[in-house]
Amino acid sequence: AICGHGCKYGECMGPNRCKCFPGFTGKTCNQDLNECGLKPRPCEHRCMNTHGSYKCYCLNGYMLLPDGTCASSRTCTMVNCQYGCEEVKGEVQCLCPSSGLQLGPNGRTCIDIDECSTGKAVCSYNRRCVNTFGSYYCKCQLGYELKYISGRYDCVDVNECVTNTHRCNLHAECFNVEGSFKCKCKQGYRGSGFDCA
Predict the structure, then answer these.
(1) In whole angstroms, what is the distance from residue 146 CA to residue 183 CA?
(2) Which of 74, 90, 112 is the last residue of a domain?
(3) For the CA atoms of 60, 64, 70, 76, what is the dihedral angle to 10 degrees?
(4) Contacts with 38 (C-beta within 8 Å, 6 or more apart), sequence order
(5) Which CATH number fits the domain that encloses residue 3?
(6) Which domain does 28 fall in, by range?
(7) Which intervals of the chain form a coiled coil (predicted)?
(8) Tens of pLDDT, residues 91-137
(9) 70, 129, 158, 178: which has the fewest Cβ within 10 Å?
(10) Alpha-carbon distance 102 to 111, whole Å?
């Protein structure tokens, strides 16, 4: 079976037919499935969609059980957690619904961890890190675009001279370079390439 556009998070099952891994959707399985919007809902109280998955959390005063349901808990009510709590060896601890969130100084509310600035994020050399609440994703660097080439998705250089997205002067020539472009005034003209006289 050959899938011309590839199956980013899935496998090719027939001519241009992808079978997506759990948590992904779309013709090429390149889109995250928002499980929180499914019927029946996967969580009893609240749901946070994550890349390829989801996390359940409970309203204040409830404790999250392993099956995603929430049980009323007097101890949780007393602690006043933002996203529900769990009891570990008789001690009550507040929970955060994602590994990209951490308990704040008060021990009750969750604050975002900026994986991009802490260096926890791993993006390949031609991708840049974009922080989101509770997570992050890798986006192509400026001057690169996401393309499906020889069986995989990669960030490839945009040829600004061909796509006409350069800002060279009318009397200048455009030269494509990796991730960018250069301008040089034509013969008989002088200047930076952006301004030629």
Answers:
(1) 25
(2) 112
(3) -40
(4) none
(5) 2.10.25.10
(6) 1-33
(7) none
(8) 778 888 778 888 999 888 889 999 889 888 888 878 888 888 888 88
(9) 178
(10) 5
What does pTM read for this prediction? Answer: 0.48
Nearest to 48 by CA among 63, 65, 32: 32
Residues 21 and 55 in one domain: no
Q: Which of 61, 90, 112 is the last residue of a domain?
A: 112
Examine the domain organization and report whether 83 and 52 are in the same domain: yes
What does the block give as tokens for 110? 């969750």
For the chain, the first-to-last Cα distance in angstroms comes to 58
Spatial separation of the C-alpha atoms in residues 130 and 140, rounded to whole Å: 10
CA gap 84, 72 in Å, rounded: 10
Q: How does residue 52 score in pLDDT terms, banded at 50, 70 and 90?
A: confident
DSSP line for 56-118: EE--TTEEE-TTS-EEE-HHHHHHT-TT-EEEETTEEEE--SSTBEEE-TTSSSEEE--HHHH
Q: Which amino acid is at 112?
A: D
